[in-house]
Design the sequence.
C-alpha cells in the first residue's frame, strides 16, 4: 500500500536545504515531462523523444540516466527485438509523483493563459 505523504508545515517549506537536492532531481522541465509520458505506458527512447517535441538526444539521454539513478524509472534491454531495443518503465517511486504532476498539469492548463497575459503585460511595460 503506498505511503501517504505527511502534511507539510510552513516551517518545513522553509527548510530549503533538505528539499532542494530532491527537487533539483525531479522538478526540472524534462524530468516532469518524461515521467508524465511514462505514467501512461512503458516507452522506448525514440517514442519518448517524439512525444517530447524539442528535447535533444543528449538531453533525453542524460535525463533518463538521472531518473534511473534516482529510482524513478527502470531501463530494460529488450533482447527479443531486432535490433535490440531499450524500454523505460516508471517505478512505484516514480508513479508516486503522478498525482502531484497531474495537479501541476491541471494548474498549467487553467492558469496558462493568465500567465501568458502577465508576461505580455510585463514585457509591454518594459518596452
Sequence:
Amino acid at each position: 500500500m503506498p505511503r501517504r505523504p505527511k502534511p507539510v508545515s510552513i516551517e518545513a517549506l522553509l527548510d530549503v536545504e533538505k528539499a532542494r537536492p530532491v527537487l533539483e532531481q525531479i522538478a526540472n522541465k524534462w524530468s516532469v515531462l518524461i515521467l508524465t509520458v511514462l505514467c501512461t505506458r512503458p516507452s522506448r527512447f525514440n517514442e519518448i523523444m517524439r512525444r517530447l517535441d524539442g528535447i535533444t538526444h543528449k538531453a533525453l539521454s542524460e535525463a533518463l540516466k538521472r531518473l534511473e539513478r534516482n529510482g524513478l524509472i527502470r531501463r530494460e534491454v529488450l533482447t527479443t527485438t531486432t535490433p535490440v531495443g531499450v524500454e523505460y518503465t516508471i517505478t512505484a517511486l516514480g508513479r508516486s509523483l503522478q498525482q502531484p504532476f497531474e495537479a501541476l498539469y491541471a494548474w498549467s492548463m487553467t492558469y496558462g493563459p493568465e500567465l501568458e497575459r502577465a508576461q505580455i503585460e510585463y514585457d509591454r511595460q518594459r518596452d
